[in-house]
Amino acid sequence: MSERENILGRIREALQTRAPFPGSHGETVAPVSAGSPASHAREWLPSVGASIEEQFDLFARNAADLKADFQLFASREELKTGLLKLRDAEKWTRVASHGGTLTDFACQALGLPAMLTDRGYDVQEMEKCDAGISECDALIAQTGGVAVTSRSAGGRALSVLPPHHVVLARREQLVADLPAAFELLRQKYAPDYPSMISFITGPSRTGDIERILVLGAHGPKKLTIMVF
Amino acid sequence: MSTSVSEFKTRAAEKTGDLRLRQFIRTALRGYETARDRRKGAFQSWESARQAAAETKWEAVNHLDTHLESLVARLEARGTKVHWASTGEQAREIIAQILRDKKARSIIKSKAMTSEEIHLNHALEKEGFTVVESDLGEFIVQLRHEAPYHIVFPSMHLTRDEIRDLFQKELGDAPSNTPEDLTMVARRVMRQKYIAADVGFTGANFAIAETGMISITENEGNARLTAALPKTMVTLLGIEKVLPRFADLALFLPMLATAGAGQPMTCYNTMYSGPRQAGECDGPEEWHVVLLDNRRTELLADAEQRDALHCIRCGACLNVCPIFRNVGGHTYGTTYSGPVGSVITPHLRGLQEWKHLSNASSLCGACTEACPVKIDLHHHLLQNRRNASAAEPAFFERLAYQIFGILANEPKFWWLAKKLGWLTQPLHGAVKGSAIDPAKAWTKTRDLPPMPMETFKDWWRNRK
Ligand code: SF4
Residue ranges of the domains in chain B? Predict the structure, then answer.
């Protein structure tokens, strides 16, 4: 017999005796309920306001808490100005990015050599880039984070290897909460999900030395989220 | 006395005597508690969320076979190679064989308690592979040839000065003792290791049956890099990690972050559903997922304690445990320490050898209250005690309780025992604390209050 059969066999045998349902007094069957237990998560997770303004407010507060830099622009032109400011302030000489409406616009605006990941890339080259510029799938008001995938954000490494990750997004990409973000991903991709989906909530961090927060443990030290 | 119990006692005595360390740990955990309470308070209903999380895990674990089959079918459909390992030894051999086939030499690892559980590093190093832990805390304890102190905060017992000295000695690089500088040293060292590594190794926090994914929670980005750069990726996954649905993560990710570290969300929560797919620009060409039983099915067979398999390894029960806080993580001598370790280790490694962990508890219930998936931890400690003494009753303990039973059942005997106790009490002073003191276990560290001459019953009868 294969190990697969052995393990599944042991599991089936073990499950012959039923275990009490959590919080019941010894019942071993689940009460009939509508939907999965977690399907009401929205009602228990931290609350999010209903209006777009409230949601952007919350996103901004959360992002600030996480030490991410969130910048909201009135137009694409303003966003361009913002990008150029970043470029000059940090003296970028080379960036990594990927093909996309927003990223193409950004790369052009920056006027710097840009390494695009789309057709494969050299890791050492990417490591030397000053910033990784990507798009994303969603901004999540509830957490102040973004969701990216290997398909929407230039692969797996672009958002973690360069020292500064710049996320570009449109206002419409804001969702209220985590359940909404998961629903959006499902509608957009299921059943053929990108091989990596990542919820990025603030720049890379560690507290492993005396529980003191240090940014940029292995991933980017800076996360800038630019939205118009 | 078994070696595990005597080692436990020696280490516990030593660690509780180290006041500096205790103070240090207490300060760190107090910080955790403040942050966690703030985050819990942000939930509209933390209690309902806990109940839903417990129910979701109940559903997952009580239909583990169908969920695992679904998970595996979906993983395989996208080109992932799935392996099944009944024991730690089998898992080690499967992983070593993958490395041999790939002619790999260096392996970069992101944090995985399952690999600690099967002593993977040691086995691979013996075969000549270079294994580097990339999580900062794990990297630090690896340099010290030490086990992680805590399942979430591996290096929380070390001060910045100790870490500076360690880096100076092992890496020849430690500009100062600030956490910032020390972290940057590790970052620099690790960068090139990622790029050079042949194989990336990870654990997993969840596995999604519905969509065939694993989910990894981390703050540093080291797991992200581990799963992005090397050509081959290997994931070791405990079979109990399944969740039924993709959307369940919307509840579990913020709960894990809140209970584990008092964060609203951990920095990176990443779901992997395959190796690099057609049209993608990076990621491993091959991905192997090794499913590990290692006696989890034995715990599964114990319906009473089956909910211990709901554990999401957040570490909350360790953080609030008065025993853990005082004896520290290394004292346990187990992979999983604290309350949850005391509950599951007897199942994973043998009840009689590890039953003492269930006695090292005040049964205060702080763990049960902290647990985000509502595992009945302190009752399980009691059940372990019961099971251990039913299987192998301790002779003296049984004798003592039999005598007590006789005394307590007969008022005359009880009265006589009280008077005798009172009469012999003055003699106790002479032997108190010495080797022949019958109450030695107590009097070594505590005072025995004198028995009052007047019992409560007498007082009640004589009161005006
Ligand atoms: S038993 Fe509960 S509190 Fe302890 S680590 Fe597991 S999930 Fe967390």
Answer: 1-42+317-392, 46-294, 398-461
